[in-house]
Amino acid sequence: MDPVTSGILIVTALFVLMAIGTPIAFALGGVSLAALVMDRGVSELTYFGETFFGSLASFGFVAIPMFILMGAAVASSPTGRDLYRSLDLWLGKVPGGLAISNIGACSIFAALSGSSPATSAAIGKLGIPEMRKRGYPDGVAAGCIAAGGTLGILIPPSVTMIVYGISTETSIGRLFIAGALPGIMLALLFMAWTLIACKLAGGYDTPSPVADAARELKDTVAKNVETNMKALVRVLPFLVVVSGILFALYGGVATPSEAAGAGAFLCLALAIVVYRMWQVKPLTTIMRDALRESVMIMLIIACAEIFAYALSSLFITQTVAEAIAALEVNRWVLMGIINVFLLVAGFFLPPVAVIVMTAPILLPIILAANFDPYWFAVILTINLEIGLITPPVGLNLFIIKGIAPDIALKDILLGSLPYALCMVLGIVLLCFFPGIATWLPDLIMESAG
């Protein structure tokens, strides 16, 4: 069977398995195993096991469960609540200020947790009921949280950036820096759209209980400041830890695995000390959530590696790469084709699976077209962010639906779509001004060197 026909059959089988509810890791592994056995016989089972366990043998993968544990410690503590209350007090008087403060809280929480689902869940549990209480339309309330949550895979430290770095053998520290300014840019674009949407709808100025309490205590303004400062003081140690981790990575003081281990320990210790989480139950919950997500990601990575091995063994990867390279088109047209491919892949697959399966194939093409690999990592990540708030998978959409089951999924989707367009605008801006992603890494790495 020729490589093109084999590739079509394998991809079709993969999507059929996922469509009937097969977990992604098992779908990838099952299709790969079937293709290898049919092509090379039962003896290929030996290589299957070696590839499966060998793909996880990299010491760099230690950083993934450690960063996940760090995020789980933050997500299981009331850090999101404190962020939300603090930003609400500062931005509550701006038209649409509550929605803007939710996006700000998502941005900061994304840096603390590194997880899009955790960010959407932690901020959404507080923000969505409060916004609806103040008269915000369901679409605005759900959409801004769903979109803000996507920042978790771009703003450092990011698990997906770690996976990209290991898959493409690029510097994880440089990838983290490359995602910083684009992450801030997207957050500002989200805030700008939210402000415009709220102004068009007449603004939402219904005071919150926190604001009411502050007004009733005008004679003791210090209490308002004290409430604000208490929330900020509780969050500040976590921000210091994240800043320290990034400094250690950028300054070459520690490897990603070492920095992740130290960050996980410190965030867990802070959750225990600051929020008095001494009981066994919350600590068990943190460990359980971290273990569950780590195993899921590791399984996807291992099975995606087997999938890539199968494609390569059947010469499917080489055929596709040659076909793309043979396209005698402008490099920006090539980048447009790659963006469409990534966008469609993000509609159906989680970010980690897309990165592990496609990054090693696309990187040589990107380098041949004279694109910066770190700039491309940001472009890739934003495409995958769009997939988090668009069907049919749209993980963040279903997380929001779980938080607010009485909001129609259609309203959540319609509220999220303008933010997806903001991300498309972000990709366009990065294409016109690549320095948004490359300037800061060049500056910091050159000064560090």
Automatic annotation (TrEMBL):
Coiled coil: none
Position of the signal peptide: none
InterPro entries: DctM (IPR010656), TRAP_DctM (IPR004681)
Keywords assigned by UniProt, alphabetized: Cell inner membrane, Cell membrane, Membrane, Transmembrane, Transmembrane helix, Transport
Source superkingdom: Bacteria
Domain called TRAP C4-dicarboxylate transport system permease DctM subunit: residue spans: 12-436
Membrane-spanning residues: 6-39, 51-74, 94-114, 175-196, 231-253, 259-278, 290-309, 340-368, 374-400, 412-437
Pfam families: DctM
First-listed, main subcellular location of the protein, grouped into a coarse class: membrane
Compartments where located: Cell inner membrane
Membrane topology: Multi-pass membrane protein
Family: Belongs to the TRAP transporter large permease family.
Entries under PANTHER family matching the protein: C4-DICARBOXYLATE TRAP TRANSPORTER LARGE PERMEASE PROTEIN DCTM, SIALIC ACID TRAP TRANSPORTER PERMEASE PROTEIN SIAT-RELATED
NCBIfam families in UniProt: dctM (TIGR00786)
Subunit structure: The complex comprises the extracytoplasmic solute receptor protein and the two transmembrane proteins.
Function, as annotated: Part of the tripartite ATP-independent periplasmic (TRAP) transport system.
The protein, known as: TRAP transporter large permease protein
Biological source species: Halomonas litopenaei
